[in-house]
Fold each of these.
Amino acid sequence: MESLLAPVQIAVTSIVGQHCTLGYPKEARLRAEQERPGTALVGAPVSVGERCLIANQVVIYEGVRVEDDCVIEDRVRIGYDCRVGPRSRLMYGAYVCDRVVVGAEVRLAGFVCDGTMIGDRATVMGDLVHEYAQPHRDWWEVDEAPPVIEADSVVGYGARVVGGVRIGPRSYVAAGSVVTKDVPPEHVVTGVDVQTPAAQWRGRRLQDLIRHWQARRAPAPPR
């Protein structure tokens, strides 16, 4: 198995904990090796940038790029060809599937399905999943549209975003909510697809965040 691991480049300022696997081969290469032992191609390289902290029992597949100043906590899985932007934190037990793009300064936990895009400064604590509408077809035959989480949005604990929907930017999906349709910018989602414009939200706990959003998009004062 070690002969199938992809090459790995780790900056000298980064730290990797115990019992980690970096450069693990994707399934297609493993199958190719089963069919014709010794002929599988070398996997896509893994790179870890400067000042990263990779904790214990982390699995990073081939083709992954982790940019500078990231923290990857214990028991995180990052699938093949993912990109993790600078200063992002992947929290304990996060399961990131394949070809996921994570922006800068993202906080991520939970489950993230193939091909998802997560914008800068977003927080994802819940699950981002495909619709899985064609289970009768072959596992690799179907490539469903993934969710898109735009910049500065939040998906709370236990929330679930289903299918190729777009969240935000600057929207908040409350803990335990379910989203099956697009969410416009600056909305709060509760329950099942209940959307409220942030400007009309009367809940006390989100007012500081809403003011922060408003400040970020306010035009600069004239000089």
Amino acid sequence: MSKVVASAAAAVADIGSGCCLAVGGFGLCGIPDALIAALAARDVTDLEVISNNCGTDQHGLGILLADKRIRRIIASYVGENSEFARQYLSGELEVELTPQGTLAEKLRAGGAGIPAFFTPAGVGTSVSDGGLPWRYAPDGSVAVASPPKEVRTFDGRRYVLEEALTADYALVHALVGDTDGNLVFDKSARNFNPLAATAGRICLAQVENLVPAGELDPAQIHLPGIFVHRIVHTGRQTKRIEKRTIAQEH
């Protein structure tokens, strides 16, 4: 059966309220914007999202966040999204902040079928000891805090046990894909996309260029099609910049 679907709307048609999504991208680089927009056009709420951050106020996952579609997010930082910070601090959104490298490895482990791993990142802090605010109460107190995690010593160094992450669906963006779902990413736009793709039980990929199966050099493929279940040709993506900095003439 062909993995190619006619539109982004068709690709996300069976994502329901309460689903968990692993979403690729870093800021606004390499985000699956067409898939996110198609999901925002549906009446889907109570989502849990795993992503490095939550886009900006007007782009990417920020669209779903602004419309109160996201219940919980696992991310490494707030980024350039003031609504993310507002919802978190006001108790409207549950947030599990995770060290960036740990987040990447939790997704990679989930995709590889590894249930957990030990890492030195976060040992001796609230990451391992517990107490990180996951959700605030309206009065500013901590309503839900992170639990303590197992810490073990290997060769004289302490490590914390981190559990892997998987999701119901993965939403990713690639520069090129073929009809079998093999993907090629563009430089830094690769970022979290392959990790999110493998962690999702069903992976949806939007591609700027769609080519016939067999046209891609196997040695150049970044993500094998076995991990991709649906692919949609969305055309050239508008490259957005979170914070434009221009050098001043002297």
Amino acid sequence: MFKKIAKTIKSFVPQEGYEFKIIDLEGLPVYNQDFDTDKNIPWAIERFRADMQSVNGVIFVTPEYNRSVPSVLKNAIDIGSTPFGKSIWNGKPAAIFSHSPGNISGFGANHHLRQSLVFLNMPTMQQPEVYITNSDALFSVNGVMIEGSTKDFVRSAVNSYIKWFEKSYSTI
């Protein structure tokens, strides 16, 4: 579901001045500090770090698993924050778009992720908070978000992020 939401977000990118990328976490090995210590870094980690280095800001799209973020996202955060002093996250303006098939809409994941982003020195958009409820019912069989209040809200939130990004990024 998060890929469908990410594609929807990407469809709202302004025509000029911005490029949104969907950076896939699939294939990332579980982080082990020995990768960096022994200088034996798997290709998937090098690729992910390079992909993330190439962006100026991040919109995290996350489902909620057990009132937190999925392990693959936490793993990616750890991969990007290491080795010490070379974090790919440092200073990048962020936003969090959380979702759930239920009514809680990813509240726990959203707030757990915010805690990590504070430590990673990622200024994070405060408003609007983006919690997408009943996410499994928002898409057509083609994977396109159905027109309605949620799609309007996501579009508005993307526009808010862009305005906030411009203010944040200019002060970094």
